Amino acid sequence: xxxxxxxxxxxxxxxxxxxxxxxxxxxxxxxxxxxxxxxxxxxxxxxxxxxxxxxxxxxxxxxxxxxxxxxxxxxxxxxxxxxxxxxxxxxxxxxxxxxxxxxxxxxxxxxxxxxxxxxxxxxxxxxxxxxxxxxxxxxxxxxxxxxxxxxxxxxxxxxxxxxxxxxxxxxxxxxxxxxxxxxxxxxxxxxxxxxxxxxxxxxxxxxxxxxxxxxxxxxxxxxxxxxxxxxxxxxxxxxxxxxxxxxxxxxxxxxxxxxxxxxxxxxxxxxxxxxxxxxxxxxxxxxxxxxxxxxxxxxxxxxxxxxxxxxxxxxxxxxxxxxxxxxxxxxxxxxxxxxxxxxxxxxxxxxxxxxxxxxxxxxxxxxxxxxxxxxxxxxxxxxxxxxxxxxxxxxxxxxxxxxxxxxxxxxxxxxxxxxxxxxxxxxxxxxxxxxxxxxxxxxxxxxxxxxxxxxxxxxxxxxxxxxxxxxxxxxxxxxxxxxxxxxxxxxxxxxxxxxxxxxxxxxxxxxxxxxxxxxxxxxxxxxxxxxxxxxxxxxxxxxxxxxxxxxxxxxxxxxxxxxxxxxxxxxxxxxxxxxxxxxxxxxxxxxxxxxxxxxxxxxxxxxxxxxxxxxxxxxxxxxxxxxxxxxxxxxxxxxxxxxxxxxxxxxxxxxxxxxxxxxxxxxxxxxxxxxxxxxxxxxxxxxxxxxxxxxxxxxxxxxxxxxxxxxxxxxxxxxxxxxxxxxxxxxxxxxxxxxxxxxxxxxxxxxxx
Length: 753
Known about the structure:
By secondary structure, this protein is of the alpha/beta class. The two termini are 43 Å apart. Among the domains are: 48-277, Rossmann fold (3-Layer(aba) Sandwich); 441-672, no CATH class. A hairpin with a 3-residue loop joins strand 13 and strand 14 (703-706). It is 60% helix and 8% strand. It has 28 helices and 14 strands. The chain has a 7-stranded mixed β-sheet with strand order 4-5-6-3-7-8-9. Helix 6 (150-158) packs parallel to helix 7, helix 7 (184-208) runs parallel beside helix 8 and helix 14 packs across helix 24.
């Protein structure tokens, strides 16, 4: 297999990248066009509300889950605010009475909302109900009317009177007798009543501004297919903008084929509140169901858009001018410069042209991200986990990594190719984990947390190794590293209007880098070869102690942060430091562990030789390390009952697992002297891959983008192509911007940078 892939290595890298970009651009144009065609039938005024009532599907143990938008989960307090100053009318059978009771229960349990009850009717169950809430104020009414017949139409007309005019009407009147399997005569009668009643209902809704939700009765599609089609045609003919059809057809009935399960009733109630309330409450999540979509750009987003347009216009004009000059065989008069000393920019490319080119490409990437995550243009699907969908992609990626194994140039412990390869396969595992919703599995969740800890460990190891070998970092190098880490993140934050902590991984890596610089700069400095290496270890231990205190008592530290400009970066959506404290404390010991390993490998060369010696000690340590890793994974997979209970185990056990990973990877000579070229290539773009997944593979990390409906394999192929293109483009643009700034900076001899 490796020999079959060797001819691919002879393809020039530049040509391969250009071909990939052309193919990906064709895919982008095609999929965007197709998405527009698939979504053209949706009315903009209703956004995806038709989806929230029509697209529910059974998921899990009796629960329901959305497919194409993000529903809001309403608490009791939110429900009370939702129905403030509202009159809500329910009408139907015992199924509707249960929905009515569920809705009222949400409001009843809200704080400080007393209620009085008046009851109409004589039968204990088959009676009308009325709830009036004095503090909101609001009222809820239930009319027991299980059949569609002329009296039902008269009741609808009564709801249009001034004294009974409702803001929301929820009905489920129909085939109560023989609910799931009605006779042909029942169906024909049902259709006749609908034909005479729906025009009345539609006119009421259109004239009064009332929202109406019709909960369909589940019917046997095999025996009544023709009649069900007639019902759908009648509904489509008279449906108004504020009429919504809730069709829980895939929910199984319980209790003698009369009622749904309790969890299903609760979900139907949540759907009703989403339909009625989402349009009037500011969304807490992007692309909220049942909320009319409109293009609302913040001032920062408008400024960013204008900036990208200016850069694109300048770069396009320059390219056209150069093409015109070449066509008439005259030299261009653009302010091009030769390649700089550092050799970053290609010859003949000016820094300004390079900057404008990067602005153009990044603008296209950001525009695609915004369209995918903030508009209903592209279809979204719900993430669903299965062990098959999780294991098969990992197996394919593992085969690709295995067939591209090559000898390393430097066989030292944790060499550059090895660390880059490690970042690569870890990033691929995280991609599959996020795409398949592996967060549902507790064991996989902690495996993902361990991967993040390994990434932080490798970053701390690499940065401290640089300080030990190369000396102090200049201010220009610090700025360059932080720029590389944060450019794409900051642009996404501005484009998507989310806080910096939304992409938590980059703040963690940036904090890791700054902590390493701080420890290296504290006397005795790390680059001083004359100081005792043990002093560097002591500094790392002191750092671990300080971080441990922060984990146990974050209050004083967070209070200090709130008085610094850092609060603008570390605050979450709720304007608190809770999310930052959690993320930072979870892998808080990975940084000191990386520093200690760097000191041990580069300042204790004699004591670290046993790792590569192949001795009996090395074999024993390898076995023990593999055993520790297996025990950790087994403990997290089988013994953890909740995340909160196992967070301390992960935090304090991860340093031992990290050291064990280093030993397993390096004590066995064949592993140390070889690396996967495929994983190494992925590792080069690991940061961009991590960030791009939220908007290219996923929609804000919550849902999966669906560019090719009905064909999951083709869909993932299209997404992967665009994903690779975006990640490569962002990485190249970041490098080019750094190179352009180097070219614009005054030349100076800075041997330390």
